[in-house]
Amino acid sequence: MWSLIYQDIYEEKGRGQKGLIRFQPLQKKQQEAGGTGSRRTVSGLDCEMQRFNFGVTMAVSTRQNMRKALLGAILLWSAISGWCYPGEQISGYARAHKYFGDDPKEFTYTITSVMQFAKPFDVADMTDDYQDAHLIAQDEDSAIVEITYYPLNTNREGIGENLNWKRDYAHMTRYLAPTATENWDENMRADLLAELRQDGVDPETLTDLQVVTRVSRWLNRRSRYTNAFAIWFVHYPAGNPEVFPLLRPAFDKEKPTPGTTDQAMFDQEVLGRSMFYNRVHGSCTSYAVYLATVLRALGIPSRIVLFVPPVDANDRQQKEMLLSAIHHNAVRATIRHGLPRGGFANHLFNEAFIGNRWVRVNYDVVGQNTLDDSYLGLLTHILTTDSLSHVPMAETWGRRYAMYSAVEPKLSSQNPYRLLKVSDHFGVRAKIANPAEKDEELRTVTVKSAH
Predict the structure, then answer these.
(1) N or C: at which end does the chain have fewer Cβ atoms within 10 angstroms?
(2) In order of start, what are the domains of the chain with their CATH numbers?
């Protein structure tokens, strides 16, 4: 993969400073070690890529102008080189359920966008069974990434199951061990198993797929919802939840009464064991902790994944740019009706290890697709974590949500992402029906709330 990086070099010249930004394509480390070029046929073109230096130098007088100059150069480079990157080995699973062939784009329908993300994110996490990601640029505040979505994937059909899951997954301690938030213990495990068996669910006799399917439904029915939303205002120094000092006013606003303690708030939406015993959960962030806690207590490896929409819905031009670029009628209709109407929009849920691979679990939906008219339209995966307590939510999304005027980067609104460029592609070797979608703009769906 070719990446675009830049450096800020400040030099004292005359009365003030000027920033020099240099853009240079770099190959992956393994490609640098293995040779000077690589070949791949992409979009019908045979790309020969040799090492070279391509520099663009600009002088700007302010940080804001520097960002604008950077963005312009990035989009120019993306337009020139976005279709041409070295190949990676395609797995049998991806060939069957994601790409439908030996080329990532020519056997299916894809949507490719360039987005800017503010922290938290990890570009390494963004390539999964539903999307591919290539880093274009990154600074201390944000990253610009090319995302290719595969909305017609058949990942749900590829979900396997394993009867010997407890033995086979025992070594996956990173995703089984208790943490500051997913804080199960042996007493909770015993109580959980007893309650499940009383309700006719015995994990010892089920496959991993059966366990996750039945337990996630059971857990969803079992607990009540609290609309308090304080979980983003919490951090975990020394492994314990505490209110992030700058966000104390925002945290206290979420308390149902002035006398409600911090611990009571943690117990209803932050700490998985307490949520289990209190039969309560909060937002999707809270529920992801809750479900991860329960699955880990049973011996099913579990982690948490963070998603954003494909556009900042507070910016009408971004929505129009996306929808006008999508020419697959059913895909466009689904995205249109799943996009948030505005506000601070995102979604968190889980991945569980099922059938010897990671599978998305959104509340009680096992195999959640990236294309969904109830969840953001086109889910964009930006981060995976083994514990919510390992993500600086308070320092990033929490501050942005509660005190936007004081945070950087500003992007297009309060949301920590924006769409910069988008296109779609019908693979030349794909056979995809594309009938008109009747009453696309009048279609009615129920959009789930997400935080």
Answers:
(1) N
(2) 1-88 (no CATH), 156-442 (3.10.620.30)
